[in-house]
Amino acid sequence: MIAYKGDILYAPTPDRFTVIENGYVLVGDDGKVVATGGSLEALLEATSRGDSDGVDVADQSCTTDETDSITIVDRTGSLIIPGFNDLHVHAPQYPQAGLGFDYELLPWLEKYTFPTEAKYADIDIADHWYRRFITHMWQVGTLRFSAFATLHNEATLRLMQLCQESGLKPLIGKVNMDRNSPNYLVEDTDDSLSSTEQLIQQSRKLTPDIGFIITPRFVPSTTPELMVGLGELAQRYDVPVQSHLDENRNEIDWVRELHPDIPTYTEVYEQYGLMPNNRTIMAHCIWLTDRERAILKDHGVWLAHCPQSNMNLTSGIMPVRRNLDYGLKVSIASDIAAGHEPNMNRHIVTAIEASKMKTFETGYEHDRPLSLSEAFHMATKVGGSFFGKVGSFEPGYDFDALVIAEDESLLELSPEERLERFIYAGSSRDIAERYVSGRLIDKPFA
Amino acid sequence: MIAYKGDILYAPTPDRFTVIENGYVLVGDDGKVVATGGSLEALLEATSRGDSDGVDVADQSCTTDETDSITIVDRTGSLIIPGFNDLHVHAPQYPQAGLGFDYELLPWLEKYTFPTEAKYADIDIADHWYRRFITHMWQVGTLRFSAFATLHNEATLRLMQLCQESGLKPLIGKVNMDRNSPNYLVEDTDDSLSSTEQLIQQSRKLTPDIGFIITPRFVPSTTPELMVGLGELAQRYDVPVQSHLDENRNEIDWVRELHPDIPTYTEVYEQYGLMPNNRTIMAHCIWLTDRERAILKDHGVWLAHCPQSNMNLTSGIMPVRRNLDYGLKVSIASDIAAGHEPNMNRHIVTAIEASKMKTFETGYEHDRPLSLSEAFHMATKVGGSFFGKVGSFEPGYDFDALVIAEDESLLELSPEERLERFIYAGSSRDIAERYVSGRLIDKPFA
């Protein structure tokens, strides 16, 4: 077992942080949290071992003693927090980050996104830019994410292999699109289905730590046949599903034109079998009706709230408070490259800022702003829960963690205040170490 | 003369960029732009010299030939853009950046700002943190700014001296506050006035490139006697004025209680002589009435729009489109530390994002979002115009410039797109060089 010593801070519930100043996270050999506490002796007793004689103080070291003893990884003075989990990101769009924000969604896709994604037909380009993408996610402390790739099988498998090599544990989906797409970036329906099935099978052999996720681009670019086929694959292989929902008002009108017999955008996915219970992520969900909220809640769908993207593409502001009050699961996501930066700390900030702006539209009583602990909880534990027990330091959770070695301070700060400073004004340079399932992860690629 | 060669990009008007790909900015020995153009010969002819024989190609060098010849500083492949100008920043608050944003303005001041500013009574603390502040401003390419210091004369003079040493050319104001302030951070009215006058005189001798600006904190913390005295100093010494206006609705109510006989917050400053024509900056101006707009326009006041700060402290969203349509001068500012980062590229982004969010509140016809060129114009030329001919590359403007050496790109990008990418996703690491009035400025402090 390893005991990580430092100022421990996590958010098991949205309403407040759990803080253990100068405390410990005890992690088992399986990389899962055994317990947290302020006294190592008490921790060991509580975990029914009581063998604190074996305590082995290995200052600044990470080696695990092979015996029954405890290795202490001493990070006194640093914050130890859960890693970030980003439930919506487009890996191939990474090189277009920061382009085209005088446009809204549909023209932006035509002008920047489709030409960028088309280039991933070239495996060398894909390899180069996917390495840069993964390294950047590592730098900013996003240890798990759910990514759209492109429609290209070879490039998507390469992304999964590079992720496997990196030690990060994302979900990756090959994008499916067989209608209303440019002729240089569109699939035949049957080919789309068979190549998806092939990738599921290949990745199970080749990339055991990287899950596959079924990824229809969005309703306008997938035919009913394709949606039905993908739903069947999701069921047959027990894999999750991700897509986009209710992002832009023109997009919603388009879906209504394409499916005039289905009452809402949400129900298109539902009817075609693309909303497996407790296995689905829907990005954006800005313009939900209450009817749609009920369906999303019923299926246990994760909403990936992408406030930076929604501002950039003038899509709208999600009424996050009302969705939370309704009992929906709302995580925070970067949506690279409609979001222009991967840093989840800044997306926490933007989610808070967007919730404050919403307050000015509708009043405090309808849209009370998010607090820091709520937004942090969304970016760690809510997003993490899509991967299992991830995003907290409660017993049984994977030890996915960041060690934050902060800058000097003029004021004396509490751990919560130090976290707030890192979230708002810190950078990846403040992240000293990253652990995934208890394993220290080095910089993946040069 | 020096000819800077590269992809020249600036925004003399809000509606579009002026772009000269692979062109030149010709700069005189006085550090002012002589002309810009695509051909050096044509430029020289146009400037009535015609002596292109003397052209001296000094690749990657910055030395100026002492003769009549032209030195070419070759930055081919890089963008050359005007430096950023930030009309509202609190230099001493730099170390508190990122703290306290679950609070609104007035409790945030009490809990974080006043305790921070009080520490600048210690000159060693002031020296340490002011060096860090100036270096950070240099890093992010903010070459001119208008800063609030604290009420302490010694620390404020030190800030001015460090700025003089750095080569940056800001305006600095000692803060005045003689009421409704904590007992550890409040002045006697006469002392406040005499120490302000003393600083004006000292700085004229000691820091010739750093202007002094009269800086009453805001109406609630300055008595009428102090305001009147400061207005007289502004007139006597012909120095500009800066303060806060219409930021937070509780603050506005407070001003109304303090001055029940004066119809608006704006008129308090006007009546007490703190709105010298074309010499005044007012920060925030979120909740202006049309009556106040008319007064601000009449006095030629610069509005410092601080969208990040306004989001962080839940102050509101300035209706920037309506203020622009009214003919007001609106610049973009960081408001460190209610804004959490000094980077003006990100404040350009936030101003655009805020304007998009405003659109959702009131509709496109009232609050059309800012375009990139508009926001860039505000952060360069509008802010720069407070300092004279600064913020553009039109003839006669000070050559305040940034050389942006960008990262590789997957897509082929125009200069405007490369600028957009830098604004949204770039960082200070992309800024290769900074020039103020034609002088290359090195990193000020280690």
TrEMBL record, chains A, B:
GO MF assignments: guanine deaminase activity; zinc ion binding
Assigned keywords, A-Z: Hydrolase, Metal-binding, Zinc
GO cellular component: a single term: cytosol
Single GO BP term: guanine metabolic process
InterPro entries in UniProt: Amidohydro-rel, Metal-dep_hydrolase_composite, Metal_Hydrolase, Metallo-dep_hydrolases
Span of domain Amidohydrolase-related: 80-440
Names of the cofactor(s): Zn(2+)
Entry protein name: Guanine deaminase
Organism from which the protein derives: Bifidobacterium hapali
